[in-house]
Structure formats: C-alpha cells, structure tokens
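Quick board copy: two proteins, each given as sequence then tokens.
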Amino acid sequence: MLAAYRPGGRRLRERVRLTDEQRLDWLRLIRSDNVGPRTFRDLVNHYGGARAALDALPALARRGGAAAPGRICPLAEAEAELKAARAQGIEFVALGEPDYPPRLQMIDDPPPLLAVQGERAVLARPLIAIVGSRNASAAGMKFAERLARDLGAAGFVTVSGLARGIDAAAHRASLATGTVAVLAGGHERIYPADHVDLLRDILADGAAVSEMPLAWEPRARDFPRRNRLISGLSVGVVIVEAARRSGSLITARMAGEQGREVFAVPGSPLDPRAEGTNGLLKQGAIMVTEASDVINAVEPILGRAIEPPPVEEPAHETPAHDSEPAADERSRIIALLGPAPASLDDLVRLSRTSPAIVRTVLLELEIAGRLERHGGGLVSLV
C-alpha cells in the first residue's frame, strides 16, 4: 500500500495527497506511544495503512510482552492539533506529497508528517545548512553571515537550527533570500525564547519546520533528532565553529551517514571552538574559506535529478494479511536479541525465518516498549 518508504522504483507522474481523514490517521499513529518514524513506516507497510495499523497496536503490544497497551493518540486530540496548526498557518505535509522536501524524504527515518509554517516553496530550492557553536566568536559569526549572504545571492537557501551564535548569524544574513529554521520543539515552544522575533522575520520569506507536537517543549534528546532534519533537508552542511563535543559535530556525522557533503571552516589550533572543525578537515571534510568552495562542490549533485520513492496511498486503506509469527518463531527471534545491536539480516539468517516474520516480531517488541533502534538498521532489546 504505502511504497513511500521503499527507495528506488519509478517516479509517479502525479504524486498523491492524503485526504484529511488519512492525515488524521497518520497524525494519530505518529503521536502514539512507541511509534517513531521507522516504526511508522514498518506499521503502515505491514498493515496497508495507518488506520489498520492503529487498530493493530493493542494486539502488537500484547504479543510483544507489554503489561498494558501503550497510549494510542485519540482522534479528538489529533483533530484539535490539526485545527490549532491550521489556525496558525501551519500545515502537516505528509511524506510523499508534492510539498514534502525532496531530499528529506530520502533519509532512513524521515518524519511521516512535517509541520511547516511560512513559505513552503523555499523547501524545494537548493538548501545548504550552516551550523556551529552557540558560544561563537565574533569572527565566526561574521564569516557565517558572509557565507550565508553569498550563498543566498547564488540562489541557495540557508538551513539552520535557530540556536544562538552561528545559527542565528546565518539566519539573519539570509532573511532576504530565504532561510529555513528547523525546530527542536513544537511551533508553539520556540527555543531559545528570545529568538521568537527572529523566527517571525524568517517566516516573511522563509519557513520553519518541526516534527514534534505543536506544544512540545524541547528536551536535550530532541536536538540530535532535529539535527538529522537539518542535514536531511540539505545538499551539504557547513560547520563554521565547533568545539570537540559540539552538537554541530552530530549534524556533521548525520550528514555523512545521509550521503550529504560535509564542509568545515578552518580555525586557529589555539581556539577550542575550532577543535571540532579542524578535526573534520582531518577526516576529509571539504575546506571552506568562501562560498565558491561550497557551490563548486554541490553543483554536480544539483545537476542530478532527485528520484523520490513512489507513493501509492489508496483512497481506502485495506489491512494487509496479518502474518502472525508462530510461538517457536517468536521465541527464536527474541532469544537472538540482547543489549548488543543486531541487524535484520542476521536475525533472519540465525532464526531461520522469513524477513516478514522477523519484522513482525520486531514491531511487537517495539510497540511493547522493549526494542531500541540504532543507526544502520540495527536493533537491540531495551
């Protein structure tokens, strides 16, 4: 039913839009307990649609060993969030719809629904992320401003995380040419709070995006999730300043995992704020001293067409055949899992069962809150 998550395949001539009823089902599913982007994908692909997946959640949790079913987002709550969002000019754009950012949908865990406020058209233009230290130097912020301004003049849109320091400098310098703020919390919980005015200026010609509920207060673990969106939206990521343990290095790592270009601005070996960027250069990042360094590197990439996975969302969702594992199959698969991450291929081979059966058991465990997903498709027991 939903092939939107499967890379490759033909490009559909006409990409579909969800009905409002389907959009509410998607919102309910992604807002339910233990359902993240990867789990959402697996549930919808397995059951043939979000409505059928919602109906299956209690049985999955029970078979996965949960003492009680996790919370399923009520219809009234999803309706209220959708209504509140639209009242503020925020739209929930679904993966596979025409307005969904083309590069973002190619990552391993794209948000099923992206809450977008502002000028959605900027998300279809070439995007370059500029991020760096919150405790930035004057020289670092000046360079970020110059780089953002020059890239904007060349037709690029700047993406950043609305943080203090480098992020804010990059946003401010590209207000006239378009910039995208990626939020760690919901649209009603801007962080830092003193950047509310900056966000208002951004929305005049740019956009803000979030995968979190409107009133979600950002927590520490939400910032790495946001960082994967910053890099996922972009064709390349420029790190201007980053200390050895900077969150910007997480963005750089995710960019590399997503196949994006990673750029770094060199700095003084005596400045701890340059330790991370200089380290990236040693690891093979492209050195940036002017905008042309970025432009020359990404132009060949922009010349290649983006082939998004096709979307085949039916007008009426029909549950797929529920291939419930036999007791011995479930036991063999669970026995192979532990705190050390394992791959799906290894679980299939060692359990001597089909990939479909293994995926079903993993869904059961995840909905029961017993499974943790890692990068590279690895999983472990909580």
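And the next:
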Amino acid sequence: MMYFGHIAGILKDPKNEWSLIEEEHYSAKTVFLTQISILAAIPAIAMYIGVTQVGWSVAGEEPVRLAASSALGSAVLFYFAMWGAVAFIAACTHWMEKTYGGEVSLDECLVLTTVTATPLFLSGVSFLMPILWLNVAVAGVALAYSVYLLYSGTSRIMKIDEDRAFMFASSILTVALCTLVGMLAASVIAWSHFVPLVYLP
C-alpha cells in the first residue's frame, strides 16, 4: 500500500515524487490488487450513489434517478472497464518502449500508467453529484493534470532522455485518448444491449 503514500506528493510536487517512485519497484500484481482495485472503485461507487440517490441532471433540469439494479450493473462494468483500460495502455507502452530507447519491464509501464491516471480516478468523486457541467469540468481539470504527469514522468520511469520522452509521452497520450473513446463507445453498446438503463418514475 506504499503507493498511496505518493498521492499527496504527486498532486503537490510531481517532479520530486517521480524521483521517489523511480527508486521503488512495484510488481504488476501489487499495482492491480492494491492500487488500481481501490482507485477504480472511487468513480464506480460514486457513480452508483450519485445516480441512485441524487439523480442525474443536465443543465439544472429535474434529476432523473436510476434503479439500483441497473446502476449496479453499470457501475460493475465501469469498474472492470477501468482495469482493462489501464492494462491495455500499459501493455501498449511496453510494446512501444524499444522504439524510443526504453528498456524497462511491464511493471514500470503499469506504474507510469497508474500514477498518470490517478487524478482521473480521484476526480470520480464528482459523480456523487452527477451534474453534467460539474462532472465535465472536474474531469477536464483532472485530464489536464494527468497529461502533465505523463510528460513529467515518462523520462524518469522509462529511463530515456527528455527529447525522446516527449515523443514517447505523446504516443502514450494518443493511445490513452483512443482507449477513452473506445470505452465510451463500449459503454453505449453495453447500455443498449447488455445492461439497459432503467429509470425510476
């Protein structure tokens, strides 16, 4: 659970915190079971509570709540989709690294991906108040900070010079954005065919 001791530093002084993270080693098993499993639960649980207890609102309209069973299915799918997204981005990072001179293990690639995504996971707390403009604003700030973390940490974690790290980080960002779009598309398909949304009257 030592990873969570880095969260405050990541938010306050990321460059120094990357140096500390670089000195430690976390296995893929540790990252998945003790970090991603908890971080991914934040937006999933917040979303479940928000859409069942508060209700979804667009532009200040009357909130619409989901049935608990419907919201639970969506939250579970969302939870595991985040696991899959992190794993996919880390795998792509590991696959691309030799092109940019990196020679680290999949474990380090997973650490880079997880730390970079931490602000996005934490921003999921905003789903407790599922208001579209609020959620978009919070997610936008978190995404911008995640991009900053990616560009500031790639050189250290992947152990390559800053010029190549900039190009590498841009490639990782492209993969991440494509993965995000894929998750949104998959969510629409899931809600249409597998876990249909049931609204309360």
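Board note added afterward: Helices lie at 7-12, 14-23, 28-39, 41-54, 68-96, 106-123, 132-158, 162-193.
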